[in-house]
Design a protein that fits this description.
Elements (H helix, E strand, L loop, with lengths): L1 H24 L7 E6 L2 E6 H17 L1
Antiparallel strand pairs: 1-2
């Protein structure tokens, strides 16, 4: 259980670190990514980007 928490924490740190780089490549602006404002706060739900990144990670894990 503790190992999974550490893995999830490291994955979230990596995602947070590479997000600006991925946005320069176009992730976060794909059709299917939802961005809206409520009460002055911007809400971002990256559905399409998440699916693409998951497929890439699954492909990499199959190769390794």
């Amino acid at each position: 259980m503790t190992r999974w928490l550490i893995v999830v924490f490291i994955a979230l740190l990596l995602i947070n670190a590479v997000t600006p780089w991925l946005q320069k490549l176009g992730f976060g602006r794909l059709p299917g990514d939802i961005r809206f404002k409520i009460f002055g706060r911007e809400i971002f739900i990256p559905l399409a980007s998440t699916i693409i990144l998951s497929l890439v990670c699954a492909g990499i894990s199959k190769v390794l």
